[in-house]
Amino acid sequence: MALQRGDRLAVLTSGGDAPGMNAALRAAARVGVEMGFDVVGVEDGYTGLLEGRLRRVDLGVLDEAARRGGTVLGTARSKVFPTAQGQARAREQVLATGIEGLLVIGGNGSLAGANSIAGVPTASGRELAVAGVPASIDNDLACTAMAIGVDTAMNTIVEAIDRIYDTASAHRRTFFIEVMGRDCGYLAMTSGIAAGADAVLVPEVDKTEDDRIEHVVNVIHRAYEGEAARRRVLVIKAEGAKVDLNRLKAAVEARIAELLPDVDTRITVLGHVVRGGSPSAFDRLLGARLSNAAVRGLAAGDTGFMAGWLGAGAPGPATPFDPNVVLTPIPTVLEETAKLMRGETALAQWRRRVYREVEPIIAR
């Protein structure tokens, strides 16, 4: 049943934070208020939902927050929510707080949480309407071409690599740079190409640790000894690539010590710096457009869906609320995401093929 004017719509952010979450919150609140809903924010994700920590949204605060990273509502990964006790408590809180609709902004685990309480009884005797908006810097969700936070994370990585490039060239150094992404190499490969890296190590290219070491050694020799000799080498490693960064550094140093004794190596782990910072214009607009379509979908009677960005991995048809947004049932999103991470989807297979094709090209 469609949400009606006066119904309480709760919005929460869950899982890892992603730049653009605040912009998504702002859009959800503004659209919801305009449509006559009682929009409230849930503090600290599902943990706050279990504790009934709801607060009225302040549009002025959200207007200011939309330009910042993080999330003004806070986020947390609840260990209790997935349990039977947590599910029972969630049902109780839905009844006690008068929530009729729930919009969840987050990644795969967050969507799984939303799916687990979709349709539970509400105070009005109806069923809880649920929608999801994808937010994950890893870009590891199916049924959306892009998740909120990915574009900003890529820009942050590229800016950091550009700075490292300068100091590496000054000292004739090789830098090993690890970036976030969990088991998905999207961030590493796209930022590596954009920043002009010499090698990118991603989990999608199935290689042994010895194979990766051999590849990096060959890249270094070619870079420093070739006709167009360079003064720096940049190796980008996705955190999910199965090779320890310190062991990689030690093994490479041992292999190049005799022929290239004056080449230094350094390690930089960008880590959580990639999650922070002001969201890019694209992430702000992406968050706004996905949230707009999600709220309007709930108002139109849709439920149990994720609003995804139309494109690779997210075929149409587009929602009538936005020509670039597609609404996909959350169970389908979860199933396709599992297939994506197992390398079984067409998009996953395309990525693997392209990563293999790109590897020798960027090494030249």
List strands and helices in order, with pairings.
Elements: E1 8-13, H1 21-34, E2 38-42, H2 45-50, E3 54-56, H3 59-65, H4 84-97, E4 99-106, H5 108-117, E5 129-134, H6 150-171, E6 173-179, H7 186-195, E7 199-201, H8 209-225, E8 232-238, H9 245-256, E9 264-269, H10 281-299, E10 305-309, E11 325-329, H11 330-341, H12 346-362
Parallel strand pairs: 1-2, 1-4, 4-5, 5-10, 6-8, 6-9, 7-8
Antiparallel strand pairs: 2-3, 10-11
Helix pairs in contact: 1-3, 1-10, 5-11, 6-7, 8-9
What does this structure look like?
The protein is an alpha/beta fold and 364 residues long. The protein folds into 2 domains: 8-149 and 279-342, Rossmann fold (3-Layer(aba) Sandwich); 151-275, Rossmann fold, CATH 3.40.50.460. The chain has 12 helices and 11 strands. The strands form 2 sheets. It has a 7-stranded mixed β-sheet with strand order 3-2-1-4-5-10-11, with helices on both faces. Helix 5 links the parallel strand 4 and strand 5.
Q: Which key terms come to mind for this protein?
A:
17% strand; 364 residues; 11 strands; single chain; alpha/beta; seven-stranded mixed β-sheet; Rossmann fold
The CATH architecture of the largest domain is: 3-Layer(aba) Sandwich
User: Class by helix and strand content?
Assistant: alpha/beta
- Give start-end ranges of low-pLDDT stretches: none
Total strand segments? 11
The main pleated sheet reads as: 7 strands, mixed
